[in-house]
Amino acid sequence: MQGLSTHAKGFLLTLIGVIVLTPDTLLIRLANMDVWQMTFWRGALMSATLLLTLAIIYRKDFFNRIFAIGKTGIIIAFMLALNSLTFVLSLEYASVAKVLVIIAITPMLAALMSFFFLKEDVKRSTWAAIVISFIGIAIVVSDDLFKTNGGGNIWASVYPFLTALGLAGAFTLTRSKPEINMVPATALNGLMIALLLLPFVWPLQIAAPQVLPILGIGLFILPLSFGLLALGPRYISAPEVGLLLLLETCLGPLWVWVVLEEEPSTTVIIGGFIVVITLACHAAWSLHQNHKSNKISL
What we know:
Elements: H1 6-21, H2 24-31, H3 35-58, H4 62-67, H5 70-93, H6 96-103, H7 106-118, H8 124-140, H9 142-145, H10 155-176, H11 183-201, H12 208-231, H13 238-244, H14 246-260, H15 266-292
C-alpha cells in the first residue's frame, strides 16, 4: 500500500474488513448455538487470535501498545463488547435481513456523532450515496419488513439498533484518535465479553458440527475484519466507514442463498444491484477526489 494516499489506504482496509465480515451471519446460523455460548466463543477466540498476532508483531513493545490505547481505547473496547452481545441477540429475534438493514443506519448515527462531537463536515457525495444505498436496502428487505409472522417483537428492532449505535460510537471514537492504533482495543473487547459471560456458559460445551463454524468466525472472520475496521477509521471519516458497512447488508443474505439454497426474490436482486453500484461509484469518486487533493502517500 506504499503508493496509496492516507484516504485510499483507509478506504481499502475498511472495504476488505467489511467483505471478510459478510459471511459472519451465515456461520452463526450454521453453528446453531445458543446466544451466550455463541457470544462467548466469538469473543474468546477473536481476542486470543488478535492478542497472539499483536504479541508476535510487537514483541517487547506488546504491553506498551496495549496501554497506549488509553481511556478512549477502553471505552471503544467496552462498546464493541456490548455490540457483540446485542448483535447475536438480534439474530435470535429477527431475520438476518432485518438485522442487517437496521444496522445499516450506522452511517447516519456516525454522521450525527461526527458532526456533534468531532465537528466534521459530511460531504454531499457521501450523503447522496447513503440515501441511494438506503433506498436499495429498503428494497432488499421490503419482503421481510412487511411480513406479519415473526413481527411485533420490540426486541427485534431494539437489539439491532443498539448494535448500530455501538458501531457508530466506536468508529467515531476511533476517528477522534487517528494517531493511536486501536487494534488492541478490538482484541480487548473480545476478552471483556468472554470474561463477563464465562460464569454463565461454564462448563463449556460445543458439539462437533459447531466446531468449524465457530473456528471460522473466531479465528479468521472476526480477528481479520475487526482488526482492519479498527485501522480504517484512522484514515477516513466515520460516515464513510459506516457507508461501507452497507455492503454487508447486501452480501449477507447472498451467502445464505448460496449455501442454504434460499433463492432471492426480485426485490433482493434489484435492491442489491442498487447498493453495489452505488458503493462502487462512491468508492471510485472518493479515490478520484482524494487523488486530486495530492495528499502525502504512505
